[in-house]
Amino acid sequence: MEYVTALSAESLFRYGLSTLILLLVIFILRIGLHHSILEGVELAGDTRRRWSVNIRNTLVFASLVGLSFIWAPHL
Fold first, then answer.
1. Which of 12, 20, 27, 52 has the largest CB neighbor count within 10 A?
2. What is the DSSP string of 3-69?
3. Is residue 66 within 8 Å of residue 29, measured between CB atoms?
4. pTM score, two decimals?
5. Sign of CA dihedral 26, 27, 32, 35
6. How far apart are CA 23 and CA 57, in angstroms?
7. Residue 72: CB partners within 8 Å, gap ≥ 6?
């Protein structure tokens, strides 16, 4: 029984670390893309907002897909 608990704790740590890395990468991507939209390109306000929303929605979808792939074996 101890082996099962140790294995679960180890896999939980691995999945948690993978989740943290995924969310950190998504966060860094969002900041970089958002900064490039706001500062780098000459766009109208409405177009900037649309791009910002599209980037946010795409990254939220990517994070949900990534989290489901990470946690699928444990669920």
1. 52
2. HHHHHHHHHHHHHHHHHHHHHHHHHHHHHHHHHIIIIIS---HHHHHHHHHHHHHHHHHHHHHHHHH
3. no
4. 0.79
5. positive
6. 14
7. none
Distance CA 67, CA 69 (A): 5
- CA dist 64 and 42 (Å) reads 31
- pLDDT, tens digit, for every residue of 14-59? 899 999 999 999 999 999 988 888 787 777 878 888 888 999 999 9
Contact (CB, 8 A) for 74 and 15: yes
**Can you tell me which residue has the tokens 């900037």?**
48
Measured CA distances, 14 to 8, 49, 51, 71 (Å)? 10, 37, 34, 10
